[in-house]
Design brief:
With 306 residues, this protein is of the alpha/beta class. 51% of the residues lie in helices and 11% in strands. It has one domain: Glycoside hydrolase/deacetylase (TIM Barrel, Alpha-Beta Barrel). The strands form 3 sheets. Strands 1, 2, 5, 8 and 9 form a 5-stranded parallel β-sheet that branches. Strands 3-4 form a two-stranded antiparallel ribbon. Strands 6-7 form a two-stranded parallel sheet. The N and C termini lie far apart (68 Å). Bound molecules: zinc ion.
Length: 306
């Protein structure tokens, strides 16, 4: 009896131990998200360094509009993208002006096409391919028909949609962090950094649990982060926590080979995790993901009112 129990325990452990945990790191709003003038290059340098140290095959999503100042290409900003390419990292299209999918489809399409400005030539020159598209705010369309038409357009333009599963509000925390940085408020910086790592742990635990509950296994997850000062300072720590959780870093191409990414998606106008979209399409109403502390939410709202 005892032997049998032992066997069961070992098998359980084996099946848990055999879980192949994979994650894709995706970094949006390149060349820089809400960064202070003069810090763009160093923010990216530090993010690229953290990625290279762990051989992370990350992908950055670019807003080509940020490469221009008053309608003219700013070559120092284009240089930042070249640094990504030189580091062996991939780049994708995140539209020109980062507009949500609540505008006429023709305008949205134009924003996608304008998103290739400067970017396509840079990628072509490096021998790479511009092949992934990330929706701003993860909004895929206000109505199912819009979403479907947009998907056809994107496909015709040669794009694969880059979904997100480890969805989170890092952008909100990063906004407060940037304020604290400019105010040189070291105690706020410390507490925001600590909340960042704890919050992201909770985000990972939540989505891992949803993946297990819905699919009975761990899928290759896709983490959404932004090119901001918060990550320039703390991406290294975040990556190290992912490694501690048992993850290895893979390309978006590898992750999307998992059949989960072919599952039907519930239409939503919101920027939900793709796991949530699959669950809703299957008639499951999942719990809501973890939230940032009230303190950070209030801080963010206060900044918005100024
Ligand atoms: Zn974005």
């Amino acid at each position: 009896m005892r032997a049998r129990l032992f066997t069961i325990l070992v098998l359980m452990q084996l099946s848990l131990g055999a879980q192949d945990l994979r994650v894709v790191i995706t970094i949006d709003d390149l060349p820089c998200a809400n960064c202070a003038e003069g810090t763009w290059a160093s923010v990216n340098e530090r993010i690229i360094d953290a990625l290279r140290q762990r051989d992370v095959p990350a992908i950055g999503f670019v807003n080509a509009g940020k490469l221009e100042q008053e309608g003219h290409l700013d070559s120092t900003r284009l240089d930042i993208l070249q640094q990504w390419i030189d580091a062996g990292l991939e780049l994708g299209n995140h539209t020109f002006a980062h507009r949500g999918a609540n505008i006429p489809l023709a305008e949205y399409e134009a924003d996608v096409r304008d998103g290739e400005r400067h970017l396509r030539a840079l990628i072509d020159a490096s021998g790479g391919t511009l092949r992934y598209f990330r929706h701003p705010f993860l909004q895929t369309g206000p109505r199912p028909g819009y979403r479907d038409s947009l998907n056809v357009l994107l496909n015709d333009m040669g794009y694969t949609v880059a979904p997100v599963t480890f969805d989170n509000d890092e952008w909100m925390l990063a906004y407060c962090y940037e304020h604290a940085k400019r105010a040189n408020d070291t105690s706020a910086l410390r507490s925001l950094a600590s909340e960042y790592l704890h919050y992201m742990d909770a985000v990972m635990r939540f989505h891992e649990a949803q993946s297990q509950a819905f699919l009975g296994r761990a899928i290759p997850q896709v983490l959404l982060l932004h090119a901001n000062t918060l990550n320039a300072d703390h991406l290294e720590a975040l990556l190290s926590r992912l490694v501690d959780r048992g993850y290895r870093f893979v390309t978006l191409e590898e992750a999307l080979k998992d059949p989960a990414y072919q599952l039907p998606e519930q239409h939503t106008r919101h920027g939900y995790s793709w796991i949530r979209r699959w669950q809703l399409a299957a008639g499951i109403k999942p719990p809501w993901p973890p939230e940032l502390s009230e303190k950070v939410q209030e801080l963010y709202n206060a900044f918005q009112q100024h």
